[in-house]
Amino acid sequence: MLSSYQPGPGYDELVEPGGAPRPTAQGLWRHLTALGLEALLERQQAADREIRSIGVTFQTYDGDAVLDRPWPFDVIPRVLAASEWARVREGLIQRLRALNLFIDDVYHDQRAVQAGVIPFDLITGSPNFRPECMGVDPPGGIWAHICGSDLVRGEDGTFYVLEDNLRIPSGVSYLLENRMVAKRVFPELFRSYSIEPVDSYIARLSGLLSSVSPVRDEPTMVVLTPGIHNSAYFEHAFLAQQLGIELVEGRDLVVLDDDTVYMRTVGGLERVDVIYRRIDELFLDPEVFRRDSYVGVPGLMRAWRRGNVAVVSAPGAGIADDKAIYAFVPEIIRYFLGEEPILPNVPTWRCGDPEDCQFVLGHLDALVVKPANESGGYGVVIGPTAGAEALALVAQRIEQFPPNWVAQPVLSLSTMPTLCDGNVVPRHVDLRPFALLGPTGAYVTSGGLTRVARTAGSLIVNSSQGGGSKDTWIVDATLADLDDPGGSPEHDPVPPMRSAEPEMAMDRSEHSQRIDGWELAQ
Predict the structure, then answer these.
(1) CB 222 within 8 Å of CB 245
(2) pTM above 0.90?
(3) Which among 397, 403, 269, 389 has a CA at the least distance from the CA of 325?
(4) For residues 365 and 383, is the Cβ–Cβ distance under 8 A?
(5) Fewer CB atoms inside 10 Å of the end CB: C or N, the chain?
């Protein structure tokens, strides 16, 4: 089964170029080889049954129809060394801290704009800039409390941040469910591997929500959902249940004349202190944003501005979620923290910049072109595999409104052995870890949600586009090469919280030169 596995031309997560398993995966590799393909397929079937029985689903759209589908899970796990993950963890915390300082600056002094770090029109022209948030001081100066950054690994094995998801990042429920299913499918491996746990996320999230409350003693917290037709509704319900708090819709909340939020209950109105929102901020308050919103709470912005309720993540945080802003994150880190970025960006051309736009339009067939404010893989055009008609259409759209588009070089994403149609074959993967930042500290999940493209050669890993997922194991490399899976007791240490450290700076012309050089080198 595995001796015949042929990895792709780039970096494979489990197999070295010569065909031998990577050091962190040797114990897993031997165990899977001993199992054989037939037994592995049986484990996959058991995982599929488990997912259906506990109702782990995600939603997709087919026209106006909303389809509920079982969560796609592949049993072959991704394995990363704890020593490598420690640096990734530091880089993610560094990034989230810098982005929060940037957001706070946008809605206060705008020093970064005055210093020339960020172009002024990039702020004011962003559809995620909220003038209504100017002058607001959220608890601890933190706007974006939760971030799901998408990481990809290049051909040389380097992790790059592909994008930051700060508004309402989704997927952590599937990370937790993947681990639960993996433990049931491979109990013997969890007894032998030193695999860092992921279930502490819920306690950390609960502590974060409590820490931002305007009321310190037993705050009332809720998860605010748009409702059952939202594609992430499973996750909204899952998190509310795990946190032990109410799942509410906009109609369940009311803001009275005292600018305080209350929840309607059978016993009467109950004050709400913290709202974990899973609603796009444009629909959050029809008094301030979209007047036609039926899922928001009229007056919520008044209550938030007065400090009577905490909103996680805060309205206005999406300004740092813009893919055009993403291109400047390294400079943001250098300016606000005085540090060199630990995790590199994927070089990015902004079509809002005339020089960049000219380059993109001249190289559409060699680049990945993305809308600056879409998610879920929608609107992405991969130049080398797109037809002439698709390239002509995206060129037309770029010319109509250049600031709405960015482009990046085509990365050869790392691959992983994946079960497809009864065989173990290489498929491209990315990784979405989740970082939390509150007044009392920062936390990053041990590993993250590994998403896998199910189609040969595809770079689109989103579940909404047909992708699947894998459990991600962070292991002690010194214990990873085991001869007797199932022999030693389970070791499940809680990883220490880590802080970020410093580093550098570059002007705009140097930025363009580096992009061109990087693209040519690839």
Answers:
(1) yes
(2) no
(3) 403
(4) yes
(5) C
